[in-house]
Amino acid sequence: MHDLLTDWYFWIKSLHVVSVIAWMAGLFYLPRLFVYHVEVVETGSKTDKLFQTMERRLLRAIMNPAMIATWVFGLSLVAVPGIVDWSMVWPWVKAASVLAMTWFHMWLARQRKSFVSGTNSISGRQYRMMNEVPTILLLFIVFAVIVKF
Ligand code: HEM
What we know:
The protein has helices at residues 2-7, 9-40, 46-79, 90-116, 124-130, 133-147. It is an all-alpha fold. The protein has one domain (2-147).
């Protein structure tokens, strides 16, 4: 099994990066949709339903599968012998950041449901601020995996 993972290392890493890109695209875009949904769209209108459809499809068709693929390929990379040295700092920074990114994904999924039930209580400004979370985590993750401090 270890030999197999080593042979496929570059393929797994490529698939990991592709999944990461798809996941990040959604993590950046969904909170932007929420900003416009709160600030411009009237609750119960046709546009409200259209936004709900766009948000549901983005989350279910792109973000959920991309998050799962990122985890599956990422954990496969962890299992490749000699790739992660847990005595260094970077794997811990990366682990904490990906857990935070996953929490952010779940938070967005909860907010999506609040639009469906008409109970959203978060303002456009707050969604704009939350939109910075994935950017900050992305910086931590990329510096961790590439600089490997
Ligand atoms: C979800 C759980 C994740 C796990 C378990 C994981 C694990 C890993 C591991 C073990 C590597 C290999 C490092 C190496 O070859 O030296 C890697 C590479 C990489 N990861 Fe992740 N990762 C995860 C999520 C993410 C996320 C969310 C991002 C970006 C936002 C990301 C970006 C990258 C990049 C860019 C590389 C390639 C670095 C290089 O050039 O070698 N990963 N990941």
